[in-house]
Amino acid sequence: NEHVTVRPTSEWTDQDGVVRRIRIPAPIAMLAELTHRCPLACPYCSNPLELEGVETELSTEEWISVFQQAASVGVLHLHLSGGEPAARRDLVELTAAAAKAGLYTNLITSGIGLTEKRITELSEAGLDHLQLSIQGATPELADKVGGYKGGYGRKIAVAEWTHAAGIPLTVNAVCHKQNMDQMGDMLDLAVRLGARRIEIATVQFHGWADRNRQALMPTREQFLKANAFVAEARKRLEGIIVIDYVGADHHASYPKACMGGWARTGLNITPSGKVLPCHAAETIPSLRFDNVRDKTLEAIWYEGEAFNAYRGDSWMPELCRSCDRKAIDFGGCRCQAMALTGDASATDPVCIRSPLRQLLSEQADADSLAEPPAFVYRGR
Ligand code: SF4
Ligand code: FES
């Protein structure tokens, strides 16, 4: 693969202090945020605070060109996401074009806006997989969290149609203080709906979720209980359902390897065509982002300023650069470092080696133990 060898390299210092140059690998996954429009109003919405309007969205032809470029750069998995991707009238056409380009297509949806007919059409268009979010195990709680009355019932119907169409299903359960005690019931629901996989992920507190910290931050006790539950359930349900789990990192010892390391495996495209190294990268004010309307995806991946900002380890603070875990977690999440320290190149403060960890834990404990205030729902 020629472009892998001729493109710029990133520097990496190994354990013995020897500087090595690493080749930039081709991206594996691309998340296409087809639109920021969404009928739900989740209090932990991961879309940016400034939403991109419908008038700025890439056209059908522009998206199709992006998919074709992605396939030729090396992308294997395409996640069609949003906002709510079903809000795009051309969703079936886009799916067909992506499948034709040779991409594995995964639709990440709240289910709202999908009908039985549309799911059949998506299946015929070559949709490989569908990921359906649930906000709780009961209609009362799920509809309260999503801020959408009747949402739960719609989701159950979508899961059934998906299963009937033979499209493999994953259930996404975002967990927090107010639904974590239903984790077992959400897992049972996923099994009943015929899901092959469930993603149980704890809310991340940058962006909109930060406004709801006291309403959403799980307690340390909930975190420990969830860890034990997942370990037990994985054994009990082996061969029936796969459980992917992201625990509450505010209560964990080390940060997660966000995005598998900055600009190492994947990229995101916003509705208007900006290319980001992760969905929250725009929270880092020093970064400038290229747009697929101006440059090729290949040039952006290998040469884009934002992509090269945190590749390798030369940007890392000494704490991470000399750490034996730097090739495991890559210093954690840049956006979280930005949100919590004001410096995107700081050690992610959820790391127990960070001098800020103590403060972070105290804040997380205080938020988690507070009486939950009313949700601040995602505004449109
Ligand atoms: Fe990861 Fe940096 Fe903490 Fe080491 S010091 S564990 S590299 S975040
Ligand atoms: Fe941006 Fe983690 S969300 S690096």
TrEMBL record:
Reactions this protein catalyses:
[PQQ precursor protein] + S-adenosyl-L-methionine = E-Y cross-linked-[PQQ precursor protein] + 5'-deoxyadenosine + L-methionine + H(+)
Query: Tell me, what is an example of a GO biological process annotation in this record?
Result: pyrroloquinoline quinone biosynthetic process
Query: By its UniProt entry, which Gene3D superfamilies does this protein fall under?
Result: Aldolase class I (3.20.20.70)
Pathway listed? Cofactor biosynthesis; pyrroloquinoline quinone biosynthesis
- The organism of origin for this protein: Rhizobium wenxiniae
Protein name stated in the entry = PqqA peptide cyclase
Gene that produces this protein: pqqE
Keyword Iron tagged? yes
Is-annotated flag, keyword Kinase?
no
